[in-house]
Specification:
By secondary structure, this protein is α/β, with parallel strands linked by helices. The chain is built from ten helices and nine strands. The chain has a domain of 162 residues: TIM Barrel, CATH 3.20.20. An eight-stranded parallel barrel has the order 1-2-4-5-6-7-8-9, surrounded by five helices. It holds the Pfam family GDPD.
Protein backbone atom coordinates (compact mmCIF):
# COMPACT_ATOMS: atom_id res chain seq x y z
CA UNK A 1 0.00 0.00 0.00
CA UNK A 2 1.37 3.44 -0.93
CA UNK A 3 1.73 5.80 2.02
CA UNK A 4 -1.01 8.16 0.87
CA UNK A 5 -3.56 5.35 0.65
CA UNK A 6 -3.68 5.13 4.43
CA UNK A 7 -2.27 8.55 5.26
CA UNK A 8 -5.19 10.34 3.65
CA UNK A 9 -7.91 7.73 4.18
CA UNK A 10 -9.27 9.13 7.44
CA UNK A 11 -9.02 12.31 9.53
CA UNK A 12 -5.96 12.56 11.78
CA UNK A 13 -6.58 13.43 15.43
CA UNK A 14 -4.08 16.10 16.49
CA UNK A 15 -2.21 14.88 19.58
CA UNK A 16 -4.91 12.25 19.92
CA UNK A 17 -8.65 12.79 20.06
CA UNK A 18 -8.56 15.05 23.12
CA UNK A 19 -11.28 17.51 24.13
CA UNK A 20 -9.12 20.66 24.07
CA UNK A 21 -7.70 19.70 27.45
CA UNK A 22 -10.95 19.85 29.38
CA UNK A 23 -11.00 16.26 30.64
CA UNK A 24 -9.02 14.33 28.01
CA UNK A 25 -5.65 15.95 27.51
CA UNK A 26 -3.44 16.05 24.44
CA UNK A 27 -0.77 13.40 23.84
CA UNK A 28 -2.04 11.14 26.62
CA UNK A 29 -3.16 7.55 26.49
CA UNK A 30 -6.85 8.48 27.06
CA UNK A 31 -6.70 10.79 24.01
CA UNK A 32 -5.16 8.01 21.95
CA UNK A 33 -7.71 5.47 23.17
CA UNK A 34 -10.54 7.81 22.16
CA UNK A 35 -9.04 8.16 18.68
CA UNK A 36 -8.78 4.40 18.33
CA UNK A 37 -12.38 3.97 19.48
CA UNK A 38 -13.49 6.45 16.80
CA UNK A 39 -11.32 4.90 14.05
CA UNK A 40 -9.24 8.04 13.61
CA UNK A 41 -5.57 8.19 12.70
CA UNK A 42 -3.37 9.59 15.46
CA UNK A 43 -0.86 12.43 15.23
CA UNK A 44 1.55 12.80 18.15
CA UNK A 45 4.87 14.37 19.07
CA UNK A 46 8.00 12.75 20.45
CA UNK A 47 11.21 13.76 22.23
CA UNK A 48 14.07 11.89 23.90
CA UNK A 49 14.46 11.78 27.67
CA UNK A 50 17.83 12.34 29.32
CA UNK A 51 18.36 8.57 29.40
CA UNK A 52 17.46 8.08 25.75
CA UNK A 53 13.85 6.88 25.93
CA UNK A 54 11.25 8.04 23.40
CA UNK A 55 8.63 10.18 25.15
CA UNK A 56 5.32 11.43 23.73
CA UNK A 57 5.24 15.17 24.43
CA UNK A 58 4.97 18.32 22.33
CA UNK A 59 6.24 21.39 24.15
CA UNK A 60 9.81 22.57 24.67
CA UNK A 61 9.17 22.57 28.43
CA UNK A 62 6.59 21.26 30.90
CA UNK A 63 5.16 24.64 31.97
CA UNK A 64 1.90 24.70 29.99
CA UNK A 65 0.88 21.09 30.45
CA UNK A 66 2.44 20.11 33.76
CA UNK A 67 3.10 23.34 35.68
CA UNK A 68 6.86 22.87 36.00
CA UNK A 69 9.84 24.32 34.20
CA UNK A 70 11.74 21.12 33.39
CA UNK A 71 12.22 19.79 29.88
CA UNK A 72 11.74 16.23 28.66
CA UNK A 73 15.38 16.18 27.61
CA UNK A 74 16.57 17.01 31.15
CA UNK A 75 14.64 14.23 32.94
CA UNK A 76 14.86 10.46 33.07
CA UNK A 77 11.99 8.39 31.71
CA UNK A 78 11.12 6.85 35.08
CA UNK A 79 10.45 10.32 36.51
CA UNK A 80 8.69 11.56 33.39
CA UNK A 81 6.18 8.71 33.56
CA UNK A 82 5.03 9.91 37.00
CA UNK A 83 4.26 13.48 35.88
CA UNK A 84 0.57 14.31 35.51
CA UNK A 85 -0.61 16.09 32.38
CA UNK A 86 -2.90 18.92 33.43
CA UNK A 87 -5.84 17.85 35.56
CA UNK A 88 -6.53 14.68 33.61
CA UNK A 89 -4.92 12.19 35.97
CA UNK A 90 -3.03 10.81 32.96
CA UNK A 91 0.76 10.92 32.91
CA UNK A 92 3.27 11.58 30.14
CA UNK A 93 3.59 8.33 28.14
CA UNK A 94 6.50 6.63 26.45
CA UNK A 95 6.18 5.87 22.75
CA UNK A 96 6.16 2.15 23.52
CA UNK A 97 2.95 2.61 25.55
CA UNK A 98 1.28 4.25 22.55
CA UNK A 99 2.45 1.48 20.23
CA UNK A 100 1.10 -1.16 22.60
CA UNK A 101 -2.24 0.63 22.93
CA UNK A 102 -2.63 1.19 19.18
CA UNK A 103 -1.36 -2.23 18.05
CA UNK A 104 -1.88 -1.37 14.39
CA UNK A 105 -5.59 -0.58 14.71
CA UNK A 106 -5.23 2.97 13.36
CA UNK A 107 -2.36 4.72 11.60
CA UNK A 108 0.19 6.80 13.50
CA UNK A 109 1.69 10.05 12.21
CA UNK A 110 4.57 10.84 14.56
CA UNK A 111 6.36 14.19 14.64
CA UNK A 112 9.94 14.35 15.91
CA UNK A 113 10.41 17.67 17.71
CA UNK A 114 13.60 19.70 17.39
CA UNK A 115 15.58 20.26 20.56
CA UNK A 116 18.94 19.67 22.21
CA UNK A 117 19.06 16.00 21.18
CA UNK A 118 21.56 15.14 18.44
CA UNK A 119 19.59 14.35 15.24
CA UNK A 120 21.53 11.16 14.49
CA UNK A 121 20.96 9.84 18.01
CA UNK A 122 17.30 10.84 17.87
CA UNK A 123 16.78 9.12 14.52
CA UNK A 124 18.54 5.91 15.51
CA UNK A 125 16.65 5.67 18.81
CA UNK A 126 13.24 6.24 17.22
CA UNK A 127 13.84 3.73 14.44
CA UNK A 128 14.98 1.15 16.99
CA UNK A 129 11.81 1.76 19.01
CA UNK A 130 9.63 1.35 15.90
CA UNK A 131 11.53 -1.63 14.45
CA UNK A 132 9.03 -4.32 15.41
CA UNK A 133 5.88 -2.22 15.02
CA UNK A 134 3.80 -3.66 12.18
CA UNK A 135 1.05 -1.02 12.05
CA UNK A 136 0.87 1.78 9.49
CA UNK A 137 3.00 4.69 10.62
CA UNK A 138 4.87 7.70 9.30
CA UNK A 139 7.51 9.99 10.76
CA UNK A 140 7.72 13.72 10.13
CA UNK A 141 9.49 16.84 11.36
CA UNK A 142 9.94 20.56 10.73
CA UNK A 143 13.67 19.90 11.04
CA UNK A 144 15.31 18.83 7.78
CA UNK A 145 18.34 17.69 9.74
CA UNK A 146 16.25 15.16 11.62
CA UNK A 147 14.63 13.97 8.39
CA UNK A 148 18.04 13.56 6.77
CA UNK A 149 19.21 11.58 9.80
CA UNK A 150 16.17 9.30 9.55
CA UNK A 151 16.83 8.70 5.86
CA UNK A 152 20.53 8.03 6.49
CA UNK A 153 19.66 5.62 9.30
CA UNK A 154 17.61 3.53 6.89
CA UNK A 155 14.02 4.52 7.69
CA UNK A 156 11.62 2.47 5.59
CA UNK A 157 8.34 4.09 6.68
CA UNK A 158 7.02 7.22 4.95
CA UNK A 159 8.88 10.38 5.94
CA UNK A 160 7.27 13.81 5.78
CA UNK A 161 8.09 17.49 6.09
CA UNK A 162 6.00 19.52 8.53
CA UNK A 163 5.95 23.02 7.07
CA UNK A 164 4.37 26.44 6.73
CA UNK A 165 4.99 29.71 4.95
CA UNK A 166 4.13 31.40 1.68
CA UNK A 167 7.29 33.21 0.61
CA UNK A 168 9.77 32.24 -2.12
CA UNK A 169 12.45 31.79 0.54
CA UNK A 170 10.28 29.34 2.47
CA UNK A 171 9.39 27.41 -0.68
CA UNK A 172 13.05 27.10 -1.63
CA UNK A 173 13.90 25.72 1.81
CA UNK A 174 11.02 23.24 1.54
CA UNK A 175 12.15 22.12 -1.91
CA UNK A 176 15.67 21.51 -0.57
CA UNK A 177 14.19 19.41 2.22
CA UNK A 178 12.18 17.35 -0.26
CA UNK A 179 15.40 16.32 -2.01
CA UNK A 180 16.14 14.16 1.05
CA UNK A 181 13.64 11.76 -0.48
CA UNK A 182 10.48 12.56 1.47
CA UNK A 183 7.08 11.00 0.86
CA UNK A 184 4.52 13.56 2.05
CA UNK A 185 4.06 17.04 3.51
CA UNK A 186 2.04 18.30 6.46
CA UNK A 187 1.32 21.98 5.74
CA UNK A 188 -0.28 24.81 7.72
CA UNK A 189 -3.74 25.21 6.22
CA UNK A 190 -3.77 29.02 6.33
CA UNK A 191 -0.75 29.19 4.02
CA UNK A 192 -2.75 27.45 1.28
CA UNK A 193 -3.06 27.60 -1.66
CA UNK A 194 0.51 27.97 -2.85
CA UNK A 195 2.63 26.81 -5.78
CA UNK A 196 4.85 24.56 -3.66
CA UNK A 197 1.98 22.44 -2.36
CA UNK A 198 0.15 22.49 -5.69
CA UNK A 199 3.27 21.19 -7.40
CA UNK A 200 3.60 18.36 -4.90
CA UNK A 201 0.04 17.24 -5.45
CA UNK A 202 0.46 17.45 -9.22
CA UNK A 203 3.30 14.95 -8.79
CA UNK A 204 1.29 12.59 -6.60
CA UNK A 205 2.79 13.63 -3.26
CA UNK A 206 0.11 13.55 -0.55
CA UNK A 207 -0.47 16.66 1.53
CA UNK A 208 -2.14 16.79 4.93
CA UNK A 209 -2.87 19.98 6.85
CA UNK A 210 -2.43 21.26 10.40
CA UNK A 211 -4.21 22.17 12.57
CA UNK A 212 -7.86 22.30 11.50
CA UNK A 213 -10.20 23.68 14.18
CA UNK A 214 -13.14 25.15 12.26
CA UNK A 215 -15.23 24.89 9.11
CA UNK A 216 -13.11 27.39 7.19
CA UNK A 217 -9.90 25.43 7.81
CA UNK A 218 -11.66 22.24 6.84
CA UNK A 219 -12.88 23.78 3.58
CA UNK A 220 -9.37 25.00 2.71
CA UNK A 221 -7.96 21.55 3.45
CA UNK A 222 -10.23 19.67 1.12
CA UNK A 223 -9.90 22.26 -1.63
CA UNK A 224 -6.09 22.37 -1.62
CA UNK A 225 -4.86 19.26 0.24
CA UNK A 226 -5.78 15.63 0.78
CA UNK A 227 -6.57 15.18 4.49
CA UNK A 228 -6.71 17.16 7.71
CA UNK A 229 -5.04 16.97 11.08
CA UNK A 230 -7.78 18.32 13.35
CA UNK A 231 -8.83 19.03 16.91
CA UNK A 232 -11.75 20.46 18.83
CA UNK A 233 -14.70 19.05 16.92
CA UNK A 234 -16.41 15.82 15.92
CA UNK A 235 -15.72 14.79 12.34
CA UNK A 236 -19.03 12.93 11.96
Amino acid sequence: MRCHDWLTARPIAHRGYHDMNEAIWENTLPAFARAIDNDLAIECDIRLSADGKVIVFHDDDLVRLCGRSDTIESLGAAEIETINVGTSGATIPRLEALLEATDGRVPLVIELKSGPTDPDRFAATVLAAMKNYAGSHALMSFDAGILAALKAAGATCPLGLTANGHTPEKFEAHRRAMTIGLDFVSYYYDDLPNDFVAGLRDNGVPVITWTVRNARARQITFQYADQMTFEGFDTA
